[in-house]
Write a structure and sequence with these properties.
485 residues, Rossmann fold, eleven-stranded mixed sheet, globular, RNA-binding
RNA sequence: CGGGACGUAGCCUAGGGGCUAAGGCGUCUGCUUUGGGAGCAGAAGAUCGGAGGUUCGAAUCCUCUCGUCCCGACCA
């Protein structure tokens, strides 16, 4: 495991792949387009998943599980939905050695099968709201895949809720968007912009799609989560009516929302450096690694000292690894654990032992701090908090530095770089521009610069006055344009 | 799905019709070391991505195919 990681400046894509493979987060699989999530990558996902799960339950949702296979006819009940997903479906045509009368598709998302059940479960306003979440795998036959960011099969959660009123459903849509924003910013330390998608970028079957958009280190945008207001589209498609408080039959109002293993990719791309993975302490499988440094004559004492510290920290609730493997030098271990992304390294040598201290080294900054051994637990906790905040602050500063108000088409082209249009060359960032609302303008910009409308930030729609940066017509929205993953 | 590049040991690379496929890193054994990817000695590890063809002979030439990366189209 002595391979060097390709520096970001040389090849950002290769850098990302090098980190994923060298930190043993995932591996390519024999199945085209699907990856194997290795234990270290899965542990990070579990830490993300557990926090979301806690927050979903806190907001009144329950987990359930629906089938992997969906009758093809279900997809076809919602016109926009099938049109959006048909090109990326995997279809099962045979079972038990016989051709199936009706083919199944492997779920690309579960609105249809879930709403086919909601039809039976909802009769009265007393049955509402129905707040269900599912942790599952889904499959979308992607033509071009990237580890974690876009694979044919991926893990996610999908919330599917049913409500009495449009108001309730709209509130739920925004409530869950806010849960996403909060968890991604605080737990993953990835700053995001909550906003609404344009018509051309919204979910197939939704009335409105809300999103949280993050900026990666190559200044491209990554959609980190979406929350959809589905109106009565699926209720109508599956004929789900309830008797309201006035005794009238009415279609149910719906939302759906999801985040996926793509978030692992977002964390990697946001925080890591040329030495390897950098993880927020909240997500790291281990709190710290102790690396003992000794000569033959000091080995026993240093190991004993290290062992005591490990036990002490463990008893305080930290997950601490003692790397006492004799076959690797300390230098090797430093590099190795840096590549794995462990937030804090604790060095213990004879000199430290004599002075009753240890050296704590921050993964994010490389800063070395001498800590009296009695204070190790308290300082480790403090360091974790500092690192968590520093990672978020650094990412936010980076994003803000590359978020620029742009008011004319010429400036947009200059910002994204006309000469780099049609290439993956990193240029630009987030262009914050006024927009008239027309899909034609989005298409024009995309054709010239590859940049798309990522979202209209929720908190920046007030006082819109001016002209669309693309066509010059009176503006109706403020939007973020960027190249994206 | 279109264009390009590339598949030789776990990883990187050499060899582009001819003897037993070469080297570096890593791995294993032993000794020696240990404050930023240590040293010495020895060992294991390859049907050259796969299939078919041309040839006396194929890692090498041809055809097909699979995979990875990049670009494009498509897209949660």
């Amino acid at each position: 495991m002595a391979e060097k990681i390709t520096p970001r400046e040389v090849d950002y894509s290769q850098w990302y792949i090098d980190i994923v493979l060298n930190a043993k987060l995932a591996d390519y699989s024999p199945v085209k387009g699907s990856m194997v999530i290795r234990p270290r990558g899965y542990a990070i996902w579990e830490n993300i998943r557990d926090e979301f799960d806690r927050r979903f339950k806190e907001t009144g949702h329950e987990n359930a599980y629906f089938p992997l296979l969906i009758p093809m006819s279900f997809l076809e009940k919602e016109a926009e939905h099938v049109e959006g997903f048909a090109p990326e479906l995997a279809v099962v045509t045979h079972g038990g050695g016989e051709k199936l009368e009706e083919p199944y598709c492997i779920r690309p998302t579960s609105e249809t099968i879930i709403w086919s059940m909601y039809r039976n479960w909802i009769q009265s306003w007393r049955d509402l709201p129905l707040l269900i979440n599912q942790w599952a795998n889904v499959m979308r036959w992607e033509k071009r895949t990237r580890l974690f960011l876009r694979t044919s099969e991926f893990l996610w959660q999908e919330g599917h809720t049913a409500h009495e009123t449009e108001q309730d459903a709209r509130e739920e849509t925004l409530r869950m968007l806010e849960v996403y924003r909060d968890v991604v910013e605080r737990h993953l330390a990835v700053p995001v912009i909550p906003g609404i998608k344009s018509e051309s970028e919204k979910f197939a079957g939704a009335v409105e799609t809300y999103t949280i958009e993050a900026m990666m280190q190559d200044r491209k945008a990554l959609q980190a989560g979406t929350s959809h207001f589905l109106g009565q589209n699926f209720a109508k498609a599956f004929d789900v009516k309830f008797q309201n408080r006035q005794g009238e039959l009415e279609y149910v109002w719906a939302t759906s929302w999801g985040v996926s293993t793509r978030l692992v990719g977002a964390v990697i791309m946001t925080h890591s450096d040329d030495k390897g993975l950098v993880l927020p302490p909240t997500l790291s499988p281990e709190s710290a690694v102790i690396i003992p440094i000794y000569r033959n004559d000091s080995k026993a004492a240093v190991l004993e000292f290290s062992n005591r510290l490990q036990q002490d920290l463990k008893s305080q609730g930290f997950r601490v690894i003692l790397d006492s493997d004799d076959s690797n030098s300390p230098g090797w271990k430093f590099a190795e654990w840096e590549m794995r992304g462990t937030p804090v390294r604790i060095e213990i040598g004879p000199r430290d032992m004599q002075s009753g201290q240890v050296i704590m080294v921050r993964r994010d900054s490389g800063e070395k701090i001498a800590v009296p051994v009695q204070e190790a637990g308290a300082r480790l906790k403090m360091l974790h908090e500092e690192i968590q905040h520093a990672l978020y602050a650094r990412a936010k500063t980076f994003r803000d530095e590359h978020t620029v108000p742009v008011s004319s088409f010429d400036d947009l082209i200059a910002f994204f770089g006309a000469e780099s249009a049609g290439t993956a060359e990193a240029k630009g960032g987030f262009a914050e521009s006024l927009w008239c609302g027309s899909a034609a303008c989005e298409a024009t910009l995309k054709e010239k610069t590859k940049a798309t409308l990522r979202c209209m930030p929720l908190d920046r729609q007030h006082g819109i006055a001016g002209h669309c940066a693309i066509c010059g017509a009176p503006a109706r929205h403020r939007a973020i344009f960027a190249r994206n993953y």
